[in-house]
Write a structure and sequence with these properties.
Blueprint (H helix, E strand, L loop, with lengths): L3 H12 L5 H28 L4 H33 L10 H26 L6 H27 L1
Helix pairs in contact: 1-2, 1-5, 2-3, 2-4, 3-4, 4-5
């Protein structure tokens, strides 16, 4: 996920009209950091199952930092796309771009909600891996179709 999620985010950024290489790189790093925080939270949660409260706190801190980094990335994406849409510098992206951004936002946040549920019950729940797989498949499928259709629109 630390590789595929930033690639997805770069694709969303490009579809949104963002062309600044430094901004796109920063967004990719923020998403990669989010995935790293999720990994740390999962690892710490596995260690905290035996009433290790320090590791449980590490899991919560990592989870919260993951929310901060992905929220920052999406805040930048929303703001920059809004600037592009309302400027005369670039042509306005197609109307479906906002739907893509919102769907992908909800998809990315859904991963965090699955992990949040595990942190609340203080254990890995049996359905969590299946939920991650379904969410990943749904998000990547939707993004693939969006890229495919955006190419068709430009033809």
């Amino acid at each position: 996920y630390a590789i595929s999620a930033p690639i997805m985010f770069v694709a969303i950024s490009l579809l949104s009209g963002i062309r600044n290489a430094h901004l796109i790189a920063a967004l990719a790093v923020l998403v990669c950091v989010t995935m790293g925080c999720g990994l740390v939270a999962e690892y710490a949660l596995d260690r905290a199952i035996d009433n290790d409260n320090e590791m449980y706190m590490v899991a919560w801190v990592a989870h919260l930092f993951g929310w901060v980094s992905v929220s920052t990335a999406y805040g930048i994406l929303f703001a920059t796309t809004n600037i592009v849409v309302h400027s005369d510098v670039s042509e306005e992206p197609p109307a479906f771009v906002w739907a893509i951004i919102i769907f992908q936002f909800l998809a990315f946040m859904s991963f965090g909600f699955v992990q949040f549920a595990q942190l609340i019950v203080r254990r890995r729940v049996e359905w969590s891996e299946k939920a991650y797989i379904v969410l990943s498949l749904a998000a990547k499928t939707q993004l693939t179709w969006n890229i495919f259709f955006s190419v068709l629109v430009d033809v």
